[in-house]
Amino acid sequence: MDSPDQGMYYTNLLCENSNVILDDYPPLPSNPTNAKKSTRGVNFTVKEDELLVASYLNHSLDAIQGTDQKHSQFCERIFEYFQQHKETTTERSTKSLSNRWSCIQKATNSFCSCLAQVEQLNQSGITEQDKIDKAKIMYQSKEKCIFLFEHCWKLLKNQPKWISRNNVPKQRKKMVPSPTTTPSSMQNETENEVIELDRPIGRKAAKRLRKEGKQAEEIAKVRKMKYTLLEESLAQEKELYRLKAEKMEYDKKAEEERLRLQAEKMEYDRKAEEERMRLQTEKLRIEAEKTKLAIKESEQRIMMMDVSGMPEIQRLYFVELQKEIIMRRSPA
C-alpha cells in the first residue's frame, strides 16, 4: 500500500510552486502497441503539461509500481491517469503523450544544465530569479529557441529523487538485432522489456532529505535576512551621509548669509556713523556761526554806544571795550 505521504499523489504538484534536474528517467516509448489516435494540430496547454508531469511522477516514483514496469504497462498507466484527471475535451494518444514528455524532458534537461552552470559561477548579489533569467538566456543561445517548459520545471525541481541526480541521462542498452531476428520478435521483446526505474527512497531517507531541505531553507532565509539587513544598513548609511551633506551645505549657505548680513550691517553702521559725525560737525559749525554772529552783534552794540553822557567810570569801561574790538578787527 502507498504511504500516507504518497496517498495524495503528485496531482498536488499542480497546486504547488515547487523547482529539478531531469536525468536518468527514460522517456515514454514512442510507439506502444496500444497507442490511440490523437487529434493532430492541437497544442498542449500548460495544464496538460502539468498533468503529464504529475502522471509521470505519480507512476515512476510509486513505491510499488516504480520499478520493474514493462513499457506497455507504464505507458498505459500514464495514459489512464492522464485521461482520468484531464479537464479538457482534447483527446491525447499514448504516442502524443510520449512525444510531449520527450520534448519536456529534453528541454528541461538542457535548461537545468544551463542553470547549474549559472549557479557554479557563485555570483554574489543576485537573486534566484536572476539566476533563472541568466539560465534562460544561456538556453536560448544554446538551443536557438526560448525555454517553454518553466511550468514543468517548477513542478519537478524540488522532488528529492530529481535533486539527487546529475544532468547526464543514463544510456539504455539497445538490442542489436541478429540476422535471424524478425521484426515481430523484436516488438514482443520491446513490449516485455522492463523499465529500470530506481525505487523511490524510503521514509527515513525522505524525512532526512526533507529535514535537510528545511535546514537549507532556514539557512537561505537567514542569509537572505542578513543580506536584506545589510542592504538596509547600507541604505541607511547612504541616507545619513546624504542628510549630513545636505546639512553641511545648508550650514555653509547659512554662514555665508550670516556673514553677508553682518557685512551689510557693518557697512550700514559705518555710513550711519559718518552721517552722525557730519551732522555733529554741521551742528557745531552752525553753533559756532551763531556764537560768532552773537559776538559781532554785541560788538556792534558796544561800538554804537554813545559814551559821552555816561559817568566817568562807565565811560572808561566801554571805551576800553571799543579799543579791544577795534584791535581784534584790525589787520595785524
TrEMBL record:
Coiled-coil regions listed: 251-301
Q: Which InterPro entries match?
A: NAM-associated_C (IPR029466)
The keyword Coiled coil is assigned to this record: yes
Listed Pfam families = NAM-associated (PF14303)
Keywords, comma-separated and alphabetical: Coiled coil
What are the start and end residues of every segment in region (Disordered)?
A: 169-192
Q: List compositional bias (Polar residues) regions by residue number.
A: 178-189
Q: Which residues form the No apical meristem-associated C-terminal domain?
A: 147-325
Q: What is this protein called?
A: No apical meristem-associated C-terminal domain-containing protein
